[in-house]
Specification:
Shape of chain B: elongated
Structural class of chain A: mainly alpha
Largest interface: A-B, 99 and 104 residues
Strand content of chain A: under 5%
Oligomer: heterodimer
Structural class of chain B: alpha+beta
Helix content of chain A: 55-70%
Order of helices and strands of chain B: HHHHEEEEEEEEEEHEEEEEEEEEE
Strand content of chain B: 25-35%
CATH architecture of the largest domain in chain B: Sandwich
Number of strands of chain A: 0
Radius of gyration of chain B: 28 Å
Order of helices and strands of chain A: HHHHHHHHHHHHHHHH
CATH class of chain A: Mainly Alpha
Distance between the termini of chain B: 54 Å
CATH class of the largest domain in chain B: Mainly Beta
CATH topology of chain A: Cytochrome C Oxidase, Chain A
């Protein structure tokens, strides 16, 4: 492609640090998101290792219960609110404008503000560790009355709520920004059904975030007022279940906020490395929308054991089971995209295919939780811990790594090392399953989650717990290899061209990394795969070849 | 269906563990090793879902692995560009609908039995507190941590909490029931055979959640009547301590607004009385680990409380409101 070198103004002396601190460029903000959230991933991971060390044997005293409960709470909150949700905002920030052929996000300054709230929110939450009574220790769900002043003494719980409020403001502003950008700033020819599926996923995620987050903010505000202003929303005879209804009205859609963008990434990676279009593009887009809508109608399935009327439980069992339908549609469309393809196994593709398999396991074991009767016996056991990690680690985090390997050349102009990437992949896949598969068995053997110490006389829990702890350290090794790979590749990696993978979408039309203004010229969009059209010299007349 | 067989259905690693017999002193709390009609009904439902889930996992997972291996890149020829197939989309929307509809009906048909059970023969009130379970029987008798029930009879549980959320769960006898302050939840259990069945609180309830264990003693109906009528269990002596009132105390402990017992440890002799005084405005409690020592649930500012100790030993106690701030104490009674 011919490009015209524009004359540039003479470079002024610029302070690099100041530039990053004050940037409103969507790409730089995206990179800031990725660095920050990966830092929190490491922090949350170290917390996980501490917990697995404590639980490796029965009756252990490596961590006191007081400390364990704080770490357990912060691990969950960190991984959800400081890693998975915002890391996708990072990818979205960087790639949504590029993929729709836009110059930047719709509101660049609000974008920067959304980002800077993330470290502020995280540090606010962690600052509870510095108080005499420690950080919040009521679990990431923060159920009342345990979070009320009588039971959660000290400032830790208040700081946790404030931190989540700050992160909630960030999410809501970010969601509005994504929605306005996607609705208004698509380049000519980029119709809704030519949008890359990753952009679809961000669109639906942003919609969910915008609708659901205010409920979390509201219910946490009630708890905060109970604690600090002496109101009685959730104490003195009020109904503690009200909190759970509102909390899960946010937090169940939040599960989809955490997985939909990974669906999007995988739906970009699999077609590119199979050299086929995504199978059933519209079904893929509609199934994400269906999951988004159904996601608001299943929240009480977290409360089956609280004594809700049986008819209500059965209603929520039905809606929950229905989510299996669009989820199944997605898995089968990924399968048929692979089918008959010409599959090249880069590290990105390995992570994407493993994502589909792990998500399948996480979907199938979820059916046991959806069924009322079996849920009475595995609710809040290690089965749930296993289920959520198959969805959010084997699913979302594998999707994130697929995204890292796929887009790293665009972000930096260099490839990540493929050999190290494949080594990391296999270690991570094995480590992940060694950690979380045994947790199914622990659930079936009656081990409750969130216990700081397990009684040594539960001897049948011993092998599984030890195995899970060993697996956790294998995962840690895999992540360490990624860090090494990153450190080597970011300065010394093999140089990547503009379109290293024979991609389909517009981000590959510009240089790697893209200039501040993104595109010299934006190729015409005549199908869902404008870059393939460009490579093949497709013109308007030869459309739908 | 016995648990060992079901675990044997799990992937290969499960088989090895299932064959290892439990060592002496080991406690089995697996819901799959059911010991009562409700738990066993749930195991049947579990087994049905298990086979369907395994079939889906093996077929779909197998196809993914097959496609992932079979269609590796061999040359640089672009494969046929298939964009989709409306019939296939319809098919794999319809088939999951049928499967989940079957599972829905399968579970729903059993739910009235699982949730509400047959008409109860015995009713027990269960109260969760941080961090123990209290039981109150039909004749007013009450005790802690060990629930005695008649084997072969349907026992209705009326479950509530005095403080935060808890979850009553004895996996081998039935599904869990949340204990919610201010509400009366209900559940039921039945043990088919006499024996001991174990469990622990299954809803995170604060600092010592992990230690909130319970035991169900299923006994014969005759033994149950003897238990209710207060026949002393074999080997039990007189209580180690009793409440006192207006007696000169050998040791005084202050409960302060700094959330401390002052002093936090005191030593007295057998027969001595210890007096606790709330010297501040905060509400406190004096709650002993040893449930045979009388505890005080709430003590307002200025109030006093006395206990007379009758047996040598070390008695740990806490303020349930402020234990997370480290408000704990010890009384050592020397012979």
């Amino acid at each position: 492609m011919a490009s015209i070198a524009l004359p540039r103004p003479a470079a002024a002396r610029r302070n690099v640090l100041l530039e990053w601190l004050t940037t409103v460029d969507h790409k730089k903000i995206g990179i800031l998101y990725l660095y920050t959230t990966f830092f929190f991933f490491l922090v949350g991971g170290i917390m996980a290792l501490l917990m697995r060390t404590q639980l490796s044997v029965g009756g252990n005293d490596f961590l006191t219960p007081k400390l364990y409960n704080q770490i357990m709470t912060l691990h969950g909150t960190t991984m959800i609110f400081l890693w998975i949700i915002p890391v996708f905002s990072g990818f979205g920030n960087y790639f949504v404008p590029l993929m729709i052929g836009a110059r930047d996000m719709a509101f660049p300054r609000i974008n920067a503000f959304s980002f800077w709230l993330i470290p502020l929110g995280g540090l606010t939450m962690y600052s509870g560790l510095l108080t005499q009574t420690g950080a919040a220790a009521a679990g990431w769900t923060g159920y009342v009355p345990l979070t009320e002043k009588a039971y959660a003494v000290g400032l830790g719980q208040d700081l946790w709520i404030l931190g989540l409020h700050i992160l909630g403001i960030s999410s809501i502003m970010g969601a509005i920004n994504f929605l306005v950008t996607i609705h208004n700033m698509r380049t000519g020819g980029m119709t809704w059904f030519r949008l890359p599926l990753f952009v679809w996923s961000v669109e639906i995620t942003a919609g969910l975030t915008l609708l659901a987050s205010p409920f979390l903010a509201g219910v946490l505000a009630m708890v905060l007022m109970d604690r600090q202003l002496g109101t009685h929303f959730f104490n003195h005879g009020s109904d503690p279940l009200l909190y759970q209804f509102i909390f899960w009205f946010y937090s169940h859609p939040a599960v989809y906020i955490m997985i939909l963008p990974a669906f999007g990434i995988v739906s970009e990676v699999i077609p590119v490395f199979s050299r086929k279009p995504i199978f059933g593009y519209r079904a893929m887009a509609f199934s994400m929308a269906a999951i988004g809508v159904l996601g608001f109608m299943v929240f009480a399935h977290h409360m089956f054991t609280t004594g809700l009327p049986l008819s209500l439980q059965e209603f929520f069992m039905g809606t929950t089971a229905l989510i299996a339908v669009p989820s199944g549609v997605k898995v089968l469309n990924w399968l048929t995209t692979l089918w008959g393809g010409s599959i090249k196994y880069t590290a990105a593709m390995l992570f994407a295919v493993a994502f589909v398999l792990m998500f399948l396991v996480g979907g199938v074991d979820g059916v046991f939780l959806a069924s009322l009767a079996t849920d009475y016996q595995i609710h809040a056991t290690y089965w749930v811990v296993s289920h959520i990690h198959y969805v959010l680690f084997g699913g979302s985090v594998f999707g994130v790594f697929a995204g890292f390997f796929y887009w790293f050349p665009k972000l930096t102009g260099r490839y990540l090392n493929e050999s190290l990437g494949k080594l990391q992949f296999w270690l991570q896949l094995v480590g992940f399953n060694v950690t979380f598969m045994p947790m199914h068995f622990l659930g079936l053997e009656g081990m409750p989650r969130r216990i700081a110490v397990w009684l040594p006389n539960r001897t049948d829990w011993a092998p599984w717990n030890l195995m899970a702890s060993i697996g956790a350290f294998v995962i840690a090794l895999a992540v360490l290899i990624f860090l090494v790979n990153f450190a080597i590749s970011v300065r010394g990696g093999r140089r990547a061209p503009a379109d290293p993978w024979q991609g389909n979408t517009l981000e590959w039309a510009t240089t790697s990394p893209p200039p501040a203004y993104n595109f010299d010229t934006i190729p015409p969009v005549r199908s869902g795969r404008p870059l393939r059209d460009l490579r093949r010299g497709v013109t308007a007349a030869a459309e739908h070849a | 269906m016995p648990r060992r067989l079901l675990l044997g259905m799990l992937p290969a690693v499960g088989v090895a563990a299932a064959l290892v017999p439990l060592p002496a002193g080991a406690v089995d709390v697996s819901p799959l090793n059911c010991a009562g009609p409700q738990a066993c009904d749930i195991v049947n439902i579990y087994a049905g879902i298990f086979w369907i889930a395994m079939a889906v996992l093996v077929i779909v997972g197998g196809l993914i692995v097959y496609a992932a291996l079979r269609f590796r890149r061999k040359d640089d020829v672009e494969p046929p560009q298939v964009h989709g197939n409306a019939r296939l989309e319809l098919l794999w929307t319809a088939v999951p609908v049928v499967i989940v509809a079957f599972l829905f009906v399968r579970t729903t048909l059993r739910m009235d039995y699982v949730r509400n059970g047959p008409p109860p023969q015995v009713t027990v009130q269960v109260t969760g507190v941080q961090w123990a379970w209290g039981f109150k029987y039909s004749n007013g008798k009450s005790n802690f941590s060990k629930l005695t029930i008649p084997a072969g009879q349907v026992v209705r549980l009326e479950v509530t909490s005095r403080d935060v959320l808890h979850s009553f769960w004895v996996p081998r006898l039935g599904g869990q029931v949340y204990a919610i302050p201010g509400q009366m939840n209900h559940g039921w259990i039945e043990a088919s055979q006499p024996g001991q069945y174990f469990g622990q609180c299954n809803e995170f309830c604060g600092l010592d959640h992990y230690s909130m264990t319970l035991e169900v003693d299923a006994v014969t109906p005759a033994q149950y009547q003897a238990f209710l009528s207060g026949a002393p269990p074999p080997g039990a002596g007189p209580p180690p301590a009793q409440k006192a009132n207006g007696v000169t105390a050998a040791a005084n402990v202050a409960e302060t607004d700094e959330l401390k017992f002052q002093p936090s440890s005191a030593t007295v002799k057998v027969g001595d009385v210890v007096q606790w005084t709330n010297t501040g405005n905060s509400v406190h409690s004096v709650t002993f680990d040893n449930q045979q020592v009388p505890s005080l649930d709430t003590q307002n500012g200025g109030e006093k409380y006395e206990v007379k100790f009758l047996k040598p030993g070390t008695y740990h106690y806490i303020c349930t409101y402020h234990v997370t701030s480290g408000m704990t104490g010890t009384i050592t009674v020397s012979g």
